[in-house]
Structures are given as structure tokens and as C-alpha cells.
Amino acid sequence: MDDRSNIIFEDRFTVADVDKDGKKFDRVSRITATSADLHMHITLDIAVELYPLAAGETFALALARSLKPEDDADADEEGEGEGAGAGGTKRVRRELWRSEDQGLAADYDYVCYGKVYKFDDSQRGENLTTAYFSFGGLLMALRGSYRHLAEVVVGENVYLLMRK
Questions:
Q1: In angstroms, rounded to a whole number, what is the distance separating the alpha carbons of residues 147 and 123?
Q2: In the chain, which stretches have pLDDT less than 70?
Q3: Rounded to 5°, angle at Cα 66 from 121 and 47
Q4: Three-class DSSP category at 135
Q5: Helix (H) or strand (E) holding 76
Q6: 64, 6 in Cβ contact below 8 A?
Q7: Global confidence as pTM
Q8: Strands 28-34, 41-47: parallel, antiparallel or unpaired by DSSP?
Q9: For the segment 1-29, what is each residue's pLDDT rounded down to a tens digit?
Q10: What backbone torsions phi and psi does residue 74 show, to the nearest 5 degrees?
Q11: Cα–Cα dist 54/154, whole Å
């Protein structure tokens, strides 16, 4: 299967503003950006020491359920019980981030792990919705057509993947 099977959202954004309300933290900036393809709007807290962005820059953003390609995830589920022996020991799978093969993360420059914690569709007449994410305190609001956010589920853990 394709490596993109775990990706639930993907688009290219152009940074409109960096810290438009003033800089609140030394190492974190809040960016606002828009996409031309899907007409989405994003507000994102980002660690600028790790991944600096300036107004006018373009970046690709993806949200994924897992860093593993789907065919690898299926193989792990099928072989999960193979290591169980007579002593009741079970084979322990090594987490992807600890292995040499980084999966989808190898293709991106900035990767965060977090959770979808809220949806807001208060502007019903426009068919717009906002999905809110938290990545260890770094927040993201992704606003646009509900059709593009159909695979995003509240309470689901996701990976934020970014590259220029």
C-alpha cells in the first residue's frame, strides 16, 4: 500500500502572520496561515528554535494517525501473537520512534504528537468547522470545510508533520 494511507489531512500553507498579537513566549511563536488548494486556515503554536517560519513562507502540513505505513501496521497486528511461547512471554514491538526506520517522519522536518480535543462548527451556514489540537501544550486550530476534516475524530491521537 501507499505510505500516505495513514494521513488524514494534507495541504500546503502560506504563512500570513507570525505573532500578530505580540510574542508571549521566548521559544514559541503563533503563526497564522492559509492554504490555496483547500481554502483552509490554520493557527499554530510552533517551536521556532526547531522550525523557524517567517511571513510569506510556504510549508506542507500533514496529520497522520501513525508514522507507520499502513501495510507495516497490518503486518504487526497479524504477527503480534507470534512471540508468545509456553512461558507466556510475548514479543515486544519496538516503537517506531526508537528504531532506525522513522517511517513517515523521515520525510518531514518537524514532527509533533498530540490529540484532537474539540470541534467547533458554530458557523453552520457557511459549512465551516474548526478542529482543535494540542501537541504537548502547543495548540493548533484548523478551520475550513467540514468535508476536508471528515477523517479527524475528537479524542484521536495524531501526528503533526511539517516540511518546507
A1: 15
A2: 1-5, 69-101, 123-125
A3: 70
A4: strand
A5: helix 70-78
A6: yes
A7: 0.77
A8: antiparallel
A9: 344 468 899 999 999 999 888 788 889 99
A10: -65, -40
A11: 30
